[in-house]
Amino acid sequence: MIADRIKNVKDSGTMRMKELAGQKKAEGKKIISFTVGEPDFDTPKHIVEAAKKALDEGKTRYLDGPGLPALREAIAKRAKGENGIPCETSNVMVTPTKQAIFMTIMATVNPGDEVIMPDPAWVSYEPCATLAGGRVVPAVTKEESGFRVLPETVAELITPKTKMILLNSPSNPCGSVATKDDIKGIADLAKDHDLVVLSDEVYEKIVFDGLKHHSIAAEPGMFDRTVTISGFSKTYAMTGWRLGWLVAPKPLFKAVGKIQQHSITHATTFAQYGGLAALTEPQDCVNAMVKEFSERRDLIMRLMGDIPQLHCDTPKGAFYVFPRYEGKMDSEQMALHLMDKAEVALTGGSAFGGAGEQHLRISYATGKKNIEEGMARLKKAFA
Ligand code: GLU
After folding, report:
1. Which residue minimizes the CA distance to atom 4 of ligand 1?
2. What is the CATH number of the domain that holds 346?
């Protein structure tokens, strides 16, 4: 009954642990959940109000495939002004972020093409590439270089079959942030070898310590070969809205647009009005959430310092820590063990690739009280 192409695709490791934590809670366990990367804040009120107003005004019908014109314009303005990407409104497609990743890979990767992507990396990149018939080539990142994807690592992996380099900065699961030099070096490789770049920048606003996010599509000569993807989920606490965007040069935009037309048609109409409010109203809510994430990061790093069996350098962005642990269990067993014994839910590092083994991903997009209690439980369990 099931098509061959899906047989080797694994379940999403993050979603699986989230669901398991939910089941345990339903059984009455007092689980502290560090599983899924989802801000615990409510979507800011003005965004909710804008979507409600749209519903009240009957904005419940089809739009054109690429999305609400005013929202596309607002995204283009931001991509140009804040990211330095030389795009026009016509390069912007509104679509759920994950859908953007899936469509971009489907529209560019032929069977047998090689896709270089970080390892560890977010759980869904590899399945998307596999579904397209591509071959995943892991660019292993190291703790000692802050889990950044280094141009010299990528250079060694390029072959005549390489089609795409996939980037994700700030990164899930490591919280690494690419430097300007990293981005420049990878851009040079992409140009020299005529490669497509998919740059997932969904955590672009969640960077700490005064660091700056760099978009590779802003590098000279890169716009024509790059699809930049971002969204509302993480920046505006809008995970359930399923709303994001991609910015692509015309030929790629057209190819991706066909998949959008033949799959979801377009992103939900009234949700797009919420997205418009998110981008065009003052950004104080974003600043407040990022400040809170930064404080939580400092708190979790301080508490982790008291657990001798966990080792982790301070991440620079996103809302994850990815410590290495001491212990004989593999990371999946360890995650299940901690759920059972400590009632702490997190994701085993191997869900993010082979290089994630012996690590745990802790999402600290949850309140400080939870962080304190969860880390105290982990300390006890590791002791
Ligand atoms: N990206 C988030 C995570 O890694 C949300 C889950 C998902 O969509 O995979 O936890």
Report:
1. 37
2. 3.90.1150.10
Q: How far is the centre of ligand 1, averaged over its atoms, from the C-alpha of 37 (Å)?
A: 5
pLDDT in tens, 52-98: 999 999 999 999 999 999 999 999 999 999 999 999 999 999 999 99
Query: In testing the pocket of ligand 1, which one of 9, 10, 14 has its CB within 8 Å of the most ligand atoms?
Result: 14
Cα 316 to Cα 174: distance, rounded to the nearest angstrom: 9
Q: Are residues 18 and 71 in the same domain?
A: no
* Closest ligand 1 atom number to CA of residue 37: 10
Q: How many domains does the chain have?
A: 2
Q: Are residues 303 and 276 in the same domain?
A: no
Sign of torsion, CA 227 232 233 239?
Answer: negative
Interatomic CA distance for residues 101 and 345, integer angstroms: 27
pLDDT at 90: 98
Whether residue 273 sits in one domain with residue 292: no
